[in-house]
Amino acid sequence: MPVPSSTYRLQIRESFQLDKAAELCGYLRALGAGAVYCSPLLTSATGSDHGYDVVRFDEIDPARGGREQWERLLGAAADHGLGVVVDIVPNHAGVADAAENPAWWDVLKHGQGSRYAAWFDIDWSRGRLLLPVLGDAFDPSELKVDGEELAYYERRFPIAPGTGPQPGESAADVHDRQHYQLVNFRRADTEQNYRRFFAVVTLAGLRVEDEDVFDATHGEIRRWVERDGIDGLRVDHPDGLVDPQGYMTRLRDLLGPERWLVIEKILEPGEVQPPDWPVDGTTGYDAMAEVGGVFVDHSAEEAFTETYRELTGDRADFAAHVERGKRDVATTILRAEINRLALLAPGVDRADEALTELVVAFPVYRSYLPTGGPYLAEAIEQAGRARPDLADAIAAVAARLADPADELCRRFQQVTGAVMAKGVEDTAYYRYTRFVAANEVGGDPGRFGLDVPVFHAAEQSRQQTLPRSMTALSTHDTKRGEDVRARLAVLSELPGEWRALAGQLMAAAPIADRPFAYLLWQTVVGAGLIERQRMHAYAEKAMREANTSTHWVDPVETFEATVHAAIDAVYDDPAVREPLEAFVHRITPYGRTVALGQKLVQLTMPGIPDVYQGTELYEDSLVDPDNRRPVDFALRQRLLEQLDARDEPPPLDDSGLAKLALTSAALRLRRDRPDAFVGYRPLVATGPSAEHALAFDRGQAVTVATRLPISLERRGGWQDTVLDVGGAVTDLLSGRRHVGVVPVADLLADLPVALLVR
User: Fold this and answer.
1) What pLDDT digit, counting tens, does each position of 464-520 carry?
2) 530: in domain
3) Which of 373, 520, 558, 742 is the most buried (most CB within 10 A)?
4) Are residues 181 and 228 in the same domain?
5) Which CATH number goes with the domain that contains 198?
6) Widest CA span of the chain, in angstroms?
7) Is the distance from CB of 728 to CB of 702 less than 8 angstroms?
């Protein structure tokens, strides 16, 4: 079974069921996609738009179309020569509404005696299972007995057999006899005794390391493989598992040796995927960082750093923000996880403090001991330097943390990933705002741009080690869509103009939290003047994630009001709107050039490219749920038909036809000519503007993209810069033919990119 030539990600939900995906198969075939790539399909919590809160593992979600529509999708995909890839969620289950999850309901009803007790990662040694659902003003009279259920307003919980009310008893008396204890929601941060997905109490950790639990939760997935013939799986959040390698080995056995298997693994700079895992690669955040970085002007770093410090007053570097963010979450929302670790070292004085320091110092998401041992050694050394007063406690736990057979070691590896994700992605990325185009999942905000030789070296390595890994430019997890980041990349070429505008905006609509204000104005410039309510929703999430001037649990209304007032000023106050609109208008043409360059590079670089739904046209998405908005597929289908009927190159305008043409040309070529993508050789232009050409040869296909377009314009264009394309080639975008040493100005006479085929 061949690996897909590419994938097209669709968000399947109640408003976009599997039948609609089936109806799209003809369009996806015409676009050039190799496989339909579906978001999670197992039954999830009522109303879930994302599907990562699975409540039943034995069926396809009826709200998403159920098995009947699934089979129609399989048939439509087969009819159009498309593969099918599905996202799965092994780490956790949805427990927001206990009644929706039969396994969780049974555990609440029967406790450790439940036949499902082994499914969930619960610390029963600490007594009753804590359910943090009660409000601050809870009164026991708010509990009611309703038949065989205990009710707290709309929430329902089972009553264990034989524990119902006796004459004269209250609902609170019944509650005290249950296997669970309803507690104030704030206690989740410090006392939670079941493993959560990060700090989300409505997602309970699964024990898929248990073979019986694996089999029970993968029965429907096995049917997809053995009966339905799917082409591959994408595994969500493997870092949360006790034994990721063991899980991947078991999953590979289920899939067989040939089906495609990729994992949502975030690699820090310089980190590599564990080489002994039987998977084809990651879901592409690493590739996203490489592609985005090479279109940023590295030489502007000093100017941007100075502007950031001057306008925000923040003089800390990114490393300092990482340390602060991780420490914040380790001592607040993830304190329960640290406490659980400390309970495993009862004879170690100040074990909780030592473990906190080690978690904060850990340089990557997690290790997979024995793989990754040097990361643990680095964390031990750094923690010891930072806290010499904890030397004895650190030494006492260090040996145990290096022993993969030790329960403390296993759980420590799970916790480091959660602290990294929440402390860095969801905290530091919203606090250190020097250049937010780099503040992306898998990115490195401490790095400003990527030089072309470094990019080429990364892609040569990718071709050699991970040729079947997914590449991505946008996902359901990206904090800003690919074209928003493209326009932000242009700012790196205009440090002076950007500095003046940012200062003007921050003065015209002041926000006391200046680093957040700086993030907000970059986002507005990157996205443009999108619908007002979308920007308000983004700002609310972003400022609460930053957790500096307001918070999710206890919002600071006065601060949030100033932020929303600043957003309203974007649309209502000429002193804000007019300079902003003028600047967005100025950078938009260059943003299109970067957007096309990023897209072509991602679609043709080593790996299996994914196209996130709708991104074949220009898009202005922000963080979820904004990036899961409905997509106008009818428009895209109509434009593709118009495009295929054209004889001339597409226009470089707001219609997005140029991006659609590029996407379809690259996807069709990858599907129809896999022999054109078998190697990777950097191509280096020569001449006065050589640094503005990013080019590489994949064997029978050559990619040429324009980088730093404003600087190129200042140089006077390509002038006599040339590129040796080898033998005769045809540009699939313009139809022009070239051979040998060609002026880059001729290669890119119609569009700022070229896809050449021998």
Assistant:
1) 999 999 999 999 999 999 999 999 999 999 999 999 999 999 999 999 999 999 999
2) yes
3) 520
4) no
5) 3.30.1590.10
6) 95
7) no
What average pLDDT score do residues 2-20 get? 97
DSSP 64: G
Closest by alpha carbon to 338, among 120, 552, 189, 205? 189
Q: Is the C-alpha dihedral spanning 676, 677, 680, 686 positive or negative?
A: positive
Pair (343, 198) in one structural domain: no
Give the whole-angstrom CA distance, residue 683 versus residue 660: 25
pLDDT at position 635 is 98
Phi, psi of 614 (to 5 degrees): 90, -15
Closest to 703 measured CA to CA, from 647, 754, 649, 740: 754
Q: Which residue has the tokens 């932020």?
A: 563
Residue 609 lies in a domain: no
CATH assignment at residue 566: 1.10.10
The pLDDT assigned to 270 comes to 87
Instruction: With respect to residue 684, please indicate whether it lies within any of the assigned structural domains.
Output: no
Residues 243 and 266 in one domain: yes
Helical ranges in 547-630 per DSSP H: 557-572, 574-604
- Tell which of 586, 606, 629 closes a domain: 586
Residues 238 and 201 both lie in one domain: no
Contact in structure between 747 and 738 (CB atoms under 8 Å): yes
Token pair recorded at residue 387:
């806290």
Cα–Cα dist 398/404, whole Å? 12
pLDDT at 755: 98
Distance CA 372, CA 384 (A): 19
> Taking the CA of residue 703 as centre, how many other CA atoms within 13 Å lie in the half-sphere pointing to its CB?
30
Distance CA 612, CA 291 (A): 16
DSSP, collapsed to helix, strand or coil, labels residue 118 as helix
- Give the position of tokens 């970059």: 522
689 vs 416, 707, 756, CA distance in Å?
45, 10, 20
Q: 3-state DSSP call for residue 670?
A: helix
Residue 128 CB partners (closer than 8 Å, separation 6+): 178, 179, 180, 181
Q: What's the rounded Cα separation, in Å, for the pair 509 and 580?
A: 12
Q: Phi then psi for 6, rounded to 5 degrees? A: -170, 170
For residue 325, give the nearest of 623, 548, 624 by alpha carbon: 548
HSE toward the beta carbon, residue 172, CA cutoff 13 A: 7
pLDDT at 167 (0 to 100) = 93
Q: Which of 553, 586, 619 is the last residue of a domain?
A: 586
CB 689 within 8 A of CB 719: yes
pLDDT at residue number 1: 62
Task: Give how many domains the chain has, as a whole number.
Answer: 4
Distance CA 114, CA 123 (A): 15
Encoding tokens for residue 322? Answer: 């990482």
| Short-list 399, 285, 424, 290, CA closest to 348 | 399
Spatial distance between the Cα atoms of 52 and 64, rounded to a whole number of angstroms: 13
* 274 & 341 share domain: no
User: Considering only CA atoms, which of 173, 203, 199, 204 is closest in space to residue 186?
Assistant: 199
Beta-bridge partners for 233: 86, 261
**Given the DSSP bridges, would you call strands 677-683 and 35-38 parallel, antiparallel or unpaired?**
unpaired
- What value does the mean pLDDT take over residues 335-349? 96
Between CA 659 and CA 687 the distance in angstroms is 28
Domain match, 61 and 112 both: no
Range of the structural domain that residue 117 is part of: 98-205
Q: What is the model's pLDDT at position 713?
A: 98
Same domain? For 148 and 245 the reply is no
Examine the domain organization and report whether 180 and 243 are in the same domain. Answer: no
Strand-strand pairing, 693-699 and 677-683? antiparallel
Residue whose entry in the numeric block shows the structure tokens 């996807």: 667
Q: CATH number of the domain at 46, please.
A: 3.20.20.80
